[in-house]
Amino acid sequence: MTTVTTDTDVLVVGAGPTGLTLACDLRRRGVDCRVVDRAATHHTRSRGKGLQPRSLEVFDDLGIAGAALAAGRTHHHVRLYSGGRLALDLDLPARPPQPGVPYPNLVVLPQWRTEQVLRDRLAALGGTVELGRELVGIDQDADGVTGTVVDSTTGAPEEIRAAFVVGSDGGSSRVRTLTGIAMRGASHEEHFVLGDVRIEGLPADGSSFAWFDDDGYLAADPLDGSGTWQVQASVRPDASGNLETASLELFQRLFAERGFGHVRLHDATWLSDFSPRVAIVDRYRAGRVLLAGDAAHVHSPAGGQGMNTGIQDAYNLGWKLDAVLRGRAGHALLDTYQEERMPVARAVLTSSDLGHSAFFSPHPAMTFLRNRVLVPALRLAVVRNRLLDGVAELRVGYRGCSLAGEAATGEHTGDGEAAGVVDAVRFRHGPRAGDRAPDAEVRSGGNGAPTRLFDLFRGTHSTLLLFDGPAATDAGYRRMAATARRVRAALGDDVRAWIVVPGDRRPEHLDDVDVVLDPDRDAHQRYAAAAESLYLVRPDGYVAFRSQPATAQPVLDHLGSMFRLYAPA
């Protein structure tokens, strides 16, 4: 059989949330990519069913946050049983947008629906998912990678020549195996069954149910308004060491054992068994092959971090691949992908492992702690909010990594705008280089229409924010305009510069510089800009560099160490 050879910039293997997020990001940047998946059809399993706030911010940037919110649920009602009695009946309405955080809520929607939203966006960008296409070989050299893909229907092989291959093909990643990247870890002793089933007899008011008792864990979460639920349960071996596999009969019995024999489970569309594993690869990259999502790290589903961490992997990697492909950076930029994301994955593994032990361990000491301490503590709003904030991924950052730079020169500008001691202290406590750049409400410098910093960030560019501070002078505006011009000359269309003015009037003589107004000083407060300050925000929404005052040379020196600038500093 003849082997066909084709070319692309990036071959993405695996069309789950991680691979689809990466493909959407690459396609909107004009990067040619192909997405292949060995599955013959798109699945309809609920699997990872929650989008965390930071993932919604990624979806905002990709233009699909609204679609995800419309399809999901942000108002949660939880009935939690412990030791055979109703221990908690919590109504958790959606929290309104908070200062700097436009999406504060966990959105519950089945994973198949999340993937559908991403596929629709990919299609709008001119991309598609090639189903029934299995990767069977990888051969890379100094100039690229050749992936051999076989069509599951015809058996026809195709050699796809790509500059890079990204494996987002799950915990049993074929890309990882073929590349020889090791994954090390251990499995939990607990075994779980889960499935998507229809349930009659439980309230159709959107409530979730969970039971923690000596017989193990059981939970049921509504997936939509049609009576379909995701059911999860822990199972223990019998006297002979045998484990029951997932079935409607097993789930029906588990409900009856907890006093809910009146409910009827039927029409299962998915049943599965698993033992949580905690493992991570020893490297995220082997030459021109990179790993993302579950292909690089797997862990307990406790805390709802797996899918979301994979989405963040893709968002971190997309703009870096683009910069290398366009010749704006060398391959060393791709080393920062592992540098930034591996510590995040290790932290997620640790936290999800602790959460798993706290809620699922059958050990008597953990059972006592869960029933007597953890469950009662959930009655306190401060505890619930702390738990939700802890898994929201808004605090994930890259401080101290190669791409994070800061400069506080203390340079006196000579026009009354230099930072004083108090201003400098406040600035030090603002968003640091490597932190997530917060949102803020501002107004257009043209017509005064309300807008947000996230609106300025949205797209494939970096964003330069030049904060004027309260001591506004013509000399200060001229200097900031000159800084904006120098950075734009060095980065071209890769950066958009904005002067943030504390007030409701656009200053004169700034015709060639974009301006936003900050009448309530919300943006100045979020960025601790009590005096003239500069923030450069990366394409993925993290602070790449900040300085006080807003001078060009320090940021250009920092960028020049990693990127190929259009003009000399």
From TrEMBL:
Domain FAD-binding: 7-350
The keyword Flavoprotein appears for this protein: yes
InterPro entries (alphabetical): FAD-bd, FAD/NAD-bd_sf, RIFMO-like, Thioredoxin-like_sf
Top-level taxon of the source organism: Bacteria
Obligatory cofactor(s): FAD
Keywords: FAD, Flavoprotein
GO molecular function: FAD binding; oxidoreductase activity, acting on paired donors, with incorporation or reduction of molecular oxygen, NAD(P)H as one donor, and incorporation of one atom of oxygen
Annotated Gene3D superfamilies: 3.30.70.2450, 3.40.30.120, FAD/NAD(P)-binding domain (3.50.50.60)
Alphabetized NCBIfam families for the sequence: PRK06184.1 (NF004832)
Protein family membership: Belongs to the PheA/TfdB FAD monooxygenase family.
Protein name: 2-polyprenyl-6-methoxyphenol hydroxylase
Lineage start: Bacteria, Bacillati, Actinomycetota, Actinomycetes, Geodermatophilales
